[in-house]
Amino acid sequence: MGHEGSRGKIVATDPVCGMYVDEKASSLAGERAGRKYYFCSTTCKLQFEKPEREMRGLKISLMISWPLTIVVILLTYVMHFGYGDYVMLLLASVVQFYAGQRFYAGIIDAIKNRSANMDTLIAIGTSAAWSYSVVLVGFPNIFPAGGVYFDTSTLIISLILTGTYMQRLAEARASTAVSALIALQPKVAHKISGNSVSDVPIDKIKVGDLLLVKPGETIPTDSVVVEGSSSVDESLITGESMPVTKRTGDSVTGGTMNSTGSLRIRAIKVGADTALSQIIRIVEDAASSKVPIQKLADRISSYFVPAVVLVGIASSLAWYVFGAVGITTSVLIFVSVLIIACPCALGIATPAALLVSSGKAAKEGILVKSGESLEVASKVNVIVLDKTGTLTKGRPDVTNIIPFLHYKESEVLAFAATAEMNSEHVLGRAITKKAEEKKIKLEFPKRFSYREGYGITAFDKKGRKIMVGNRELFRKNLPEGVEEGISGSEAEGKTTLIVGVDNKVIGLISLADTLKEDSKKTINAFRSSGIEPWLITGDNKRVAEAIAKELGIKNVISQAKPKTKMEKIVQLQKEGKIVAMVGDGVNDAPALTKADLGIAIGAGTEVAIQAGGIVLVKNNIYDAFLAIRLGKKTMLKIRQNLVWAFSYNIVLIPVAAGALIPIFSISVYNFLPILAALAMALSSVTVISNSLLLATFKTKDRESSK
Questions:
Q1: How far apart are CA 647 and CA 654, in angstroms?
Q2: Which long-range contacts (CB under 8 A, 24 or more apart) does 449-456 make?
Q3: What's the alpha-carbon Rg for the chain, to the nearest Å?
Q4: Which of 95, 422, 425, 445 is deepest in the core (most CB within 10 A)?
Q5: What pLDDT score was predicted for residue 239?
Q6: What pTM does this model have?
């Protein structure tokens, strides 16, 4: 999406080079996954839409330009003969207008879009050297000092094309995460129509279509299982290494891998609406988005190209008029300034880092919606956390069992689970799940009854009466020690059920919404990084304080409504804090939006996910810390890239403009234009290579958190 710039322009960002493009003026646009993109040049458009074709054309240009350039250099410095200048003119013209045609196309695009791009400087600079040499060949005596500079124009083009090629290779490596996601999208689906199955292109699948997925095949689109069961590998979407069992009624995500069984699925989302398409869009948006730190670079870049042309003309004329260097050196000064000042490194400083970091994050199950989210993440010093589903699992688990009389823990659990086998209550399911984990063999009760607000009464196959419930179910006739056990558990924020057999209390089972395995490590990591944690939850004070104590969180607000969370975040912001909010529910959405950075848990509600600037696909709270750490690393790389790009231009433009003439005389221009081209190419590669270091971002400590 574009935004409104100065003078009412609707400004979009070129997804390839990161330059701003006026949507109204631009004639270069393209679509992907239902979204429109705008480009500053034909080269950028081709690279975005058909990178293989653009790379192939670049290789052909290099295969032509380098052999011809070498011949031109040999004719210039080694093999002199009578018609050598005419041969060089022919060879240099092929390099200039065939291998260098992309730069002229760039100028045409710049004129159409009413903006100056990076190709402008290269085309003008090399054309100046070539044109000067052509005039000398046609009119040898027109200038006092002879000497053609076809070697300069050809070598500059060859070096810049080589640098571009190296940059493309680095970018291809940087975008492997996005490429891997795109590669997950299947091309064909098996559509079921009546009793027949036919292969249909994926873009022809509609919501509601019935599809067949065979073992070892990719799930074609977001769907729900209507028949069959299988294990599905979701690792490339969620990062989870273990396959997930899918049965009738379960949802499956397009792009994930079906492992063992056949599935019949019904499509519920297709095309751009699928989870995979949205993930790809988020990663691409983050890679091509602007961050506030880049505003200075953008402002400078918008004036940079015309300023450089003026500097080149002014320095060239000044040395010719006042420095008496001659027309030849004046032309070379102009060429050197234009080539050395080409702001390629400046243009890719931010997009390169964002591309690598957002791709790396996606690979780890962290979706970053914009570059701005990463910049804010780098400054966060307060983290506000919800409890249920964020720090805790969001479901009750059996935490401890207290047996009475002669019974063992396993026996208390077995009786309770037998009574609860037919129960749909969340506490009952937690008890039966615990029994399954303990491999306790259960038998369905002969009959059972449920009293709302009290509990369950059941009879097993031996006729024993089993009761599982609260004090009221047992009519408060509780033996000594039971009340103390219940009160102790409740003080810790737990729910306690009494288990009885034949009217005798045999034990207590305590349940609680337990912490996720990595919650404590995450809080410790935040604190050690200087980030202050706050727990703000809608739960009662007793539960909230018990959780906070276990995690070591000092700042706790309980019984908080959505408005309370928002008000606390605003208060912290007024104190000068940069606040991140982590949550997963509908009630968290307002706070996620109000916070400087919203981090949504991927297993949460759609509303929360939409409100978050960062989404944790794997439902792993430690990933919130990793996202903030990645933000700091990314901003460090962007700053390094911008410092390098600015410094390069600030230092070398005066050199190209003649600062070294008093020291080395005009002979410095025998090689300076060529060195300028080499430096320009290497600067872009340096920025890309520096950004690629983000791919080594360490996440090993996540494994130790489990």
A1: 12
A2: 450/423, 450/425, 455/497, 455/498, 456/419, 456/420, 456/423, 456/428
A3: 34
A4: 95
A5: 46
A6: 0.64
Q: From CA 620, how far away is CA 604, in angstroms rounded?
A: 12
Q: Show Cβ contacts of residue 235 under 8 Å, excluding neighbours closer than 6 positions.
A: 241
Residue type, 665: S
Domain span(s) for CATH 3.40.1110.10 in the chain:
394-515
**Residue 1 and residue 89: Cα distance in Å, rounded?**
47
Which residue among 119, 233, 386, 460 is the active-site one? Answer: 386
Nearest partner of 247 among 269, 268, 232, judged by Cα: 232
Which three-class secondary structure state does DSSP give residue 311?
helix
Separation of alpha carbons 203 and 169, rounded Å: 31
Q: Are 649 and 343 in contact (CB under 8 A)?
A: yes
510 contacts 494 by C-beta, under 8 angstroms: yes
Mean pLDDT in consecutive groups of 10 residues from the start of the chain, 706 residues: 46 64 71 70 76 84 93 84 86 93 80 67 78 82 64 80 73 58 78 90 91 90 91 65 78 84 91 76 58 56 74 89 82 77 66 79 81 87 88 86 92 94 83 92 86 86 91 77 83 86 92 87 94 87 85 89 84 93 75 86 59 79 92 90 78 83 80 71 78 78 46
CB-CB neighbours of 288 under 10 Å: 23
Place of tokens 């995500």: 253
Residue keyed to tokens 């379960």 = 250
Active site residue 386: yes
E-assigned strands of 470-578? 495-501, 504-515, 532-536, 555-557
- CATH domain 206-269 topology: 2.70.150
Q: Around Cβ 190, how many Cβ atoms within 10 Å?
A: 16
Q: 689: helix, coil or strand? A: helix
- Cβ–Cβ < 8 Å for 122, 344: no
What is the rounded CA–CA span in Å between residue 412 and residue 407? Answer: 7
Q: What are phi and psi of 207, to 5 degrees?
A: -60, 130
Tokens, residue 446: 């002969």
Q: Give the pair of three-digit tokens for residue 312.
A: 């080149």
CA dist 412 → 276, 471, 488, 637 (Å): 46, 17, 19, 58
Residues of the chain with CATH 3.40.50.1000: 366-392+516-631
* The 382-385 sheet, strands edge to edge: 366-368, 614-616, 597-601, 579-583, 382-385, 532-536, 555-557
The hierarchical CATH code for the domain 366-392+516-631 is 3.40.50.1000
- Contact between 596 and 380 under an 8 Å Cβ cutoff? The reply is yes
> Are residues 691 and 355 in contact, defined by beta-carbon separation less than 8 angstroms?
yes
Tell me the pairing of strands 532-536 and 555-557: parallel
Give strand pairing partners of 38.
29
